[in-house]
Write a structure and sequence with these properties.
The chain is an alpha+beta fold. The chain is built from four helices and five strands; from the N terminus they run ααββαβββα.
Length: 143
Amino acid sequence: MGKLQPDIKEKIYQKAISKIKNLKNEITFDLICSTLYDVFENWNFCGFYIKKKDKLKISFHKSDKIPCSPINMDGVCGQSFNSRKIIIVPDVNKFSGHIQCDPSTKSEITIPFLNYVLDIDSKELDDFDEIDKKYLKKIIEMI
């Protein structure tokens, strides 16, 4: 394991996008979670939360542990949803309001869209960057 080199990370995303595109008529949140989770060994959670009243509830996911659900709006996902901005957290232990569902999570990225947030957690510190942001936005645009 360990942090991926940028060129390797890009190739993994390109292969994942190709796989998802090949199933264009069947693109689902579940397919996206499974595809991405299976190709990134560092990840311990990949899931979609949906806004329901004043909470976020898990919609689809693939993970090492059962996710927290529902969650309050003051964590990473809630802040991302409310600000409508992608949030990259290099070290979740230094993020005020972080909701710990799996103690092995070290870093996180959240991508808000429509009434959802794509939430991805990693077992590696500082595992997410502009490459993840770029490709995950492309994947969301395919939905």
